[in-house]
Design goal:
The chain contains four helices and seven strands, in the order αααββαβββββ. By secondary structure, the chain is of the alpha+beta class.
């Protein structure tokens, strides 16, 4: 069992709580930004010099934010990204290694109808605090499994309001 002092590493209790909240918010902002196709929100989770390795993309975090949101806007009618609770190891007062499980669903269409691309993996992130601002400096995505599932709608069209993307957000 991990003790509280082991979990917070070199940080004092209040610092560890604040850093954990900031890291959690960063991960949630990433998922929200991707699902709303909001490149600025996705880019905001990275420090300006951050790198991202998503397998098919290796480059700057800001470039990834622009590329992924444009791609999903063109090729998916809706997406859902869900992250589990992150496992955070504070390696110094200003750095943390963070592992987070991710599940993603992309609703797409082809000649046979609609389908879901389902993906499970893990983000391995290095976070840094610069002037008290915790953001990602490096992200690597790993793959656990994936699948395609054909869609048969459970509810008639118009039953619910559609989820917002950037261009339709309230």
């Amino acid at each position: 069992m991990t003790t509280e002092s082991e979990a917070r590493g070199p940080l004092e209790r209040g610092e560890a709580v604040a850093a954990t909240l900031a890291i959690n918010r960063c991960i949630l902002d990433y998922c929200r930004g991707v699902d709303r196709c909001d490149p600025d929100l996705v880019a905001s989770v990275y420090h300006p010099d951050a790198t991202d390795d998503h397998g098919t993309f290796v480059g700057s975090g800001v470039d990834f934010a622009r590329r992924v949101t444009a791609h999903l806007r063109r090729h998916a009618t809706a997406t859902t990204h869900f992250c589990g609770a992150p496992h955070i190891v504070f390696t110094s007062a200003t750095t943390a290694d963070v592992e987070t499980q991710v599940l993603a669903w992309h609703r797409r269409r082809d000649d046979e109808g609609e389908y879901l691309e389902k993906f499970a993996g893990r983000y391995f992130d290095r976070f840094e605090s610069r002037a008290g601002d915790w953001r990602i400096v490096h992200r690597a995505l790993t793959h656990d499994w994936d699948a395609i599932e054909r869609i048969t709608n459970a509810f008639p069209a118009g039953t619910f309001a559609p989820s917002p993307r950037l261009d339709s957000a309230p």
